[in-house]
## 1
Amino acid sequence: MTKVYAHRGYSGRYPENTMLAFREAAKTGCDGIELDVQLTKDDQLVVIHDESIDRTTDGTGFVRDYTLAELRKFNAAARWDGKFGFEPIPTFEEYCRWAAGEKLTTNVEIKTGVYYYENIEEKTLEMIRAFGLTDRILFSSFNHSSIAILRKLAPEIPCGALVEHEGLGNPGFYCEKHDFQCFHPGWACLPKEDVDSCKAHGIALNVWTVNDMDILERLTDWGVDGVITNFPKVCLAYVRSRG
Ligand code: G3P
Ligand code: MG
């Protein structure tokens, strides 16, 4: 059955990349959660998507220019008209502590595609190991150097190569050649031949961000391994209905 990953938590209904969104995602019974990690000015791992805090919080500026203590004062639920009160930007440690008591898999996206945080791969791995989560992690990154580093540091943890809208031809060969276990394309840049390429090379396919039912139906017909969605409850209901 196609696996369902909650993109930035249950972000279609709750403030993205908050503990609230992660807890609500887990309640749906989805297979996994996708989240994004970055580093603060004082080298602490935090869970946030953009390099700046402007879009999702009541603050402005770059994540890397704030200490953790400063960042924690901003409200990551600020764009939801007060519906969810105050939700801090989670630390990755806080997430790992919670996830250790859950069954789901975490797709940890290393956000090094725009700004390269020094040693973020080592720090992320250290945290995952500290909480005994290694067998329930899937790494990914748009910066394939980051996942190549993680393949060396932790060969027991699978990695997915994320690609943006331009896609990548013959991804199965590419991923096999570089020892990446999964291919993570956006749905709009995934032709059927790329699915065939992945299958031919034994590469798992996890596709983002699948929020439309016609896309979900097509991808399920093609037999992709997983979908990453803002609406895990609806996607789960559909994939379960197909059996
Ligand atoms: O990992 C899937 C998806 O999250 C990649 O894009 O920009 O939402 O992190 P983005
Ligand atoms: Mg992401």
## 2
Amino acid sequence: MRKFFTYRNGILHAESVSIPNIAESVGTPFYCYTTAALEHYYNFFQSALKGLGEVCIHYALKANANIAVVRTLANLGAGADVVSEGELRLALAAGISPQQIVFSGVGKTPEEIAFALQTGILQLNVESEAELWTIHRIATTLNTVASVSFRVNLDIDAKTHHKMTTSRKEDKFGIEWRKIPSLLQSAISLPHLKVVGLTTHIGSQITNLQSFRKSFMRMRDLITQLNASGLPIRRLDLGGGLGVLYDPDSAADLPPSPTAYAAVIRETLGDCHCQILLEPGRFIVANAGLLVTRVLYVKEGSNKIFVIVDAAMNDLIRPSLYGAFHAILPITEPRLDMSRQTVDVVGPICETSDVFAPQRSLTPAFPGELLALDGAGAYGATMASTYNLRRLVPEILVKGDKFSIIRRRPSYKEMFALESLPPWL
Ligand code: LLP
């Protein structure tokens, strides 16, 4: 959805700010997010849930954990889904209250568990029996009661990219659904544990409602079974996963609207008398961000044209890691009568996989030109690295006709500051 990034007088703008103006001020590459888009996607998601009773949105920080982005969402009432002490601390610093935070992940360390318990978060989503006993031990030492929700492995294929499906029995996530009743039975008698509900998350970038429906039905069956055995469930965390449209020119993989997604929740779990928690990440932020880059060279290979840009796979790894599609927008609006060329848009990193767009039809690129990778607001900056000793790129937040640097480019000195030579060198 490009309505927050539009051409004005032939130049790409984020809201009312021209992208070349930002480039001039901060240099390239950089991430650019817009406040209006963040607010739009959050509000759109939230309003789709009206009618579902008590629903809480716990934004999944892993999608984009910049403090200004999280604060923008916190101001709209968002809670957080975190998966590390770092994300928990960031959520708190962004203004999210502990009672709006859930903590997921298969490998929480004892230190992270202790920190979460001391902070007094809403719930820890437990992913294994071993983790449950660790939480109990730590809660006992701290003389507190840990609120836990059991993450269920539903043995369901979310039918998304195989690296983003999380609830098949061969996946590392969650506790096998058949084991839940007996584990719950043993947990409820423990004084330092309070089982507050069940959780699931079947995967990410899901574009078919059928997978959601199947998983929610299985959750429903489980709740019915537990209720019948005197183990009432009153809170359900249904995870994230709703897909977004990355390629507006393709009819394939059209994601369902949040309204259709909410209808499936209502249809399957509407009469469960449970408070519903959701953990959307991508849906809120993906289309609120661009990665802006500059063309360095255009190189004619023997059978291909390479457009070499100054951003690389270390800045946005999704195309290299998942073969993900990101639309490429020229910053100067292309005229309809302009010819097109099929090119590979690649980064400077010394890896053949450093390709943003293989065999993409674009208007002819020229050195110095600015391009933007669309849909880069989710899993872009958060997955960046300094591979090839490239500096992390700045992040910019636009609001109306203003923009602000919400993460600056580090100096090389800062980048190397944590390294030191051993005494023998
Ligand atoms: N909750 C849990 C427990 C999760 O593991 C995730 C994502 C979410 C919520 C948020 O899911 P979303 O609404 O964003 O789909 N790096 C991949 C995506 C990995 C998602 C991991 N877990 C990508 O770039 O597409």
